[in-house]
Amino acid sequence: MSGYDKIIRNGLIVSEDGIRKSDIGIRDRTIAEIADGIVGTAAEEINAEGLHILPGLIDTHVHFNEPGRGEWEGLETGSQSLAAGGVTTFFDMPLNSTPPTTTPAAFDLKKNAADRKSIIDYRLWGGMVPENLDELEELHKRGVIGFKAFMSNSGIEDFGYSEDVTLFQGMQQIARMGSILAVHAESNLITQQLSDHMKQNGRLNVRDYCDSRPVLSEMEAVSRILAYADAAKCRLHIVHASSCEVVSLISDAKKRGIDVTVETCPHYLSLTVSDFEELGPIAKCAPPLRDQEHVESLWNLVKLGEVDIIGSDHSPSPLHFKKGKGIFEAWGGISGAQSTLNVLLEEGYWKRGVPLEKIIKTACVNPAKRFGLDKTKGSISIGKDADLAIIDLKQSFTLKESDLRYRHKYSPYVGRTFRGKVLLTISNGNIVFGEKKAANEALS
Ligand SMILES: [Zn+2]
C-alpha cells in the first residue's frame, strides 16, 4: 500500500447513478482509489463527513475577454471565480477577447495567456465568422473544443454574424473534421426589425427589449440550423436556449437522428423579466430573460433530461457599460459564473426536488461526454483527474458583492440566499478554493 497525496475521508460521493459514502485517495493529480476506509497514509487528509463531493463542474460557456479586453474580466479573476463556485474546467468563447479566437495566431495568444493565468483547466472555443472558413482546419488542429458562430449580431464589431451560406459551408467543413458547431441561435432578421421598430416608436423599456427578441426568433433560427446540421451531417450544440419551446424543437430533432445537444443557463432557470425590470441592465442578456412559466417549464425539461448541459454564459463588462445607459444600449451579458452551482442547488435541488444526480449530469457528466473529455473529467472515478467540489448542503448564505471574485463585483444574484455552500474546490489534486479547515469545521 503506497502513500497518497491526499485522502478525503467519509464524503458522500455523487455520481449520475447515485450517492455513496466512501474515501477518495488522490495521487499524482489523479483519483487513485475510491473505497471505504482506505488504508494508507497521505500528505494531507480531509474529513468530509456529512459533506457531498461532486465532480468539479465543467462550464462550457464563459467569456473571459482576454487578451485584449482583460479589463472586462480576465483569465485570472475569471478562473478564480469559477473555482469559488466548484468549477474545475471552463471553455472560453472566441469573443469578446480581441483579437477574437478566429485565427491560429489568436488561438496561440489566448492559450499562452490562459496557461499563465488560469488556476483551473480550460479549453478554447474557436470562432467561425464569414472571413475565416479557411482557418477552421488549422484551428481544429490547434485543439479548439469546437466552433462558435452567431446567427444574429454578436454586439461586438470584430465578430460578425454568419449568414446562411457561411453557416452551411462551415458546417460541411466542421463535419469533415469531426468537430462540433455551437450556435447563438436568434434570427438576425427578426431581432433587427423588431429592435428598429421599438426604437422608432419610443418603446425603450425592459419589456420592450424582451419583446424585440421573442422566443419565436430563437425557434426560427434553431429550426434553420437544425436543417443545415441534418444536411451537412454536422454535430451541433445550441447554446443558451431560453425557453421550453426551443428545447422541444431540439428534442424532436434528436428523435429524427440529428446529432444535437442543447444548453441552458442558470439565469433562465432563476430570473424573470420582472427581476430584469427590478435589477436593470445587470440582468440584460440575449436571448432575454423570460417569464416565470418559462422558468418552470425549463426546469421540467431539466428533470426529464431534455436539457443536456447547463453553462453560465458568464459575459461581464465594466459597470459603466451597464449603468447610465438605456436598456437597448447597455452591454448585454450576465455575470454569473461563480453562482452556477448555487443556483442549481437552491432553485433545482431545494425548491424543485431535482436530484443531485441530475444536476451533475448537466453540469459535469454531459459536458465531458459531449466534448470528448470523459476519459479524464466529468465524474469521480479511478484514473480520472482529481477535480472535485466539496459542498455542505446544510449551510446557507446570502451572496454579497464582497464574496464575488470577478474583476467587477456585480451580479444579478447579489442579495439572494442560497442553500448549499462550496467549501473546497480541488483541481488536479490541488486545492484551488477554500481551506482544508473549512471542510473540517463544517463537521462540528
Ligand atoms: Zn455567450
UniProtKB/TrEMBL annotation:
Which cofactor is essential here?
Answer: Zn(2+)
- Domain named Amidohydrolase-related: residues: 53-432
Listed under subunit, the entry gives:
Homotetramer.
Its UniProt entry gives the catalysed reaction(s) as: (S)-allantoin + H2O = allantoate + H(+)
This protein's pathway reads: Nitrogen metabolism; (S)-allantoin degradation; allantoate from (S)-allantoin: step 1/1
Per the UniProt record, the source organism is: Mesobacillus foraminis
Q: Which GO terms describe its molecular function?
A: allantoinase activity; cobalt ion binding; zinc ion binding
A Gene Ontology cellular component where this protein is annotated is: cytoplasm
Query: Under what name is this protein listed?
Result: Allantoinase
